[in-house]
Amino acid sequence: MLALFLVLLALLSLSNCHCHKEATISELRLAFSHNRVSSRQLVEFYLGEIKKLNPVLKGVLEVNPDALYQADRADRERAAKVPRSLVGLHGIPVLLKDTIGTKDKLNTTGGSFALLGSIVPRDAGIVSRLRKAGAIILGKATLSEWSNFRSLNAPSGFSPRGGQGKNPYVLSATPCGSSSGPAISVAANMVAVSIGTETDGSILCPASFNSVVGIKPTVGLTSRAGVIPISPSLDTVGPICRTVSDAVYVLEAIVGFDYNDAEATKKASRYIPYGGYTQFLKPGGLKGKRIGVIRNPFFVFSNGSNLAQVFEKQLQTLRHEGTILIDNLEITNLDTILNVTASGEAVVTIAEFKIAINTYLKSLIKSPVRSLSDIISFTQKFGDIENITNFGQEIFLASQATNGIRDLEKAAITNMARLTRDGYEKMMLENRLDAVVTPGANISPVLAIGGFPAISVPAGYDNKGVPIGICFSGLKGSEPTLIEISYGFEQVTNVRKVPTFLH
């Protein structure tokens, strides 16, 4: 009870700094230009909020001891009118999921003590882009340990280093994972914007449950180099922010070719539009769009839930704004796709993880562990200290038992491609759809095996006050259209509200 009281007190105290609360990147840039706030003041404000709120919410794992130094440099560059200081993310604090490597004083551990003290060889590809844009790396966000890939029994949003992340709207509700910390932190205004990663649902789900915007980019649109991996076939890196416009500003800063993730980023670079992504932040983006509605099983809600009414209202909003809804569509073999074992997703990710994590660990300049086998041994030895013995590590053990990409894995890859071609892709093309709309993040396995993009936008709240998002998804490279749709929806609905910190 005392903890809840302190959180509520901290929330009320934000009124003294209302100029920062819920501020968007555009609003912050305007404040910079009129000298109403400096980057140093902004960083100090967020550090203060982290100090007050994080003991309960546990969205931030560690803060960057050089954040104020970076803020001072941004202020000096702005005063000198350095060209990069006038646009984009310059001087804006960014929080990174603790799988995204930074060559600085911050740790990169995936939430595990096994990697505490490890030293990465270089910044992750997207971090290099953020620094080039002048963004301030505020710190690392909490997550589900190892991006939720150690055990089927581990609580979502929990890591040994960060503890149990809390949903800032209803503290007893799931924050969802694995990018829980980035979503918690921006929702509770402990940072301006954040970045997460997704293999299957790890951006879309926390965005939905924390009433924020999450963009899952087409696989390869953003570099995965320097990011603790799960599956190179499925992994992607994307923004989690409070508004569509903020998320698009971040997306624009981090996309592009990276020599250290050459194959995937070269292939996806052809999707990047000339002139960038912010040009698609325009009113009326819903008009004329053909959007498919898959009722079964995505629009099925529990008895007594108000969510059926919430989403019928939002579908009506789409129609009112000129969207052409193609209702009651079906994806061929959807039951198989949603079953990660039957689709082949589990087989592929388990095999790829061992290869990818061993490669990552061997690349580290310093590390307590150098292989998946070392991680397993570490967990067995120190599980009692970490208080995670009961969670097990059955996924790790299954991955360790694999031996490369052999016939079984190749068959699974072929099966995923067939299911994608005959399912989601065929439905999109036959109905000439611009996007598909679904509640929450339950469509994520469909998008994962196809490498497809999606954007989650706040859509409403259930009877208990727990948020839920609306997910707009499309084919590879459809980010411009998804941005138009998501921004258009956000502007006419304006659903998001500040957290309530309820039990």
Strand order of the largest sheet: 1-3-2-6-8-7-12-13-11-9-10
Number of helices: 19
Q: Roughly how many Å is the radius of gyration?
A: 21 Å
Q: State the CATH topology.
A: Amidase signature (AS) enzymes
What does this 3D model show about the protein?
It holds the Pfam family Amidase. InterPro entries: Amidase_dom, AS_sf. Keywords: Signal. This is Amidase C869.01. It comes from Artemisia annua. The chain has helices at residues 2-13, 25-33, 39-57, 67-79, 125-132, 145-148, 180-187, 204-209, 244-254, 262-269, 307-320, 334-338, 340-343, 345-363, 372-386, 394-400, 407-430, 444-450, 479-493, and strands at 60-63, 93-97, 136-141, 158-159, 163-164, 193-198, 213-216, 236-241, 290-293, 324-326, 435-439, 454-461, 467-473. Mean pLDDT is 94; it is low at 1-19. The chain is of the alpha/beta class. The radius of gyration is 21 Å and the shape is globular. The longest helix is centred in the last third of the chain and has 24 residues, at 407-430. The strands form 2 sheets. Strands 1-3-2-6-8-7-12-13-11-9-10 form an 11-stranded mixed β-sheet, with helices on both faces. The chain has a two-stranded antiparallel ribbon with strand order 4-5. It is built from 19 helices and 13 strands. It has a single domain (30-496), classed as Amidase signature (AS) enzymes (Alpha-Beta Complex).
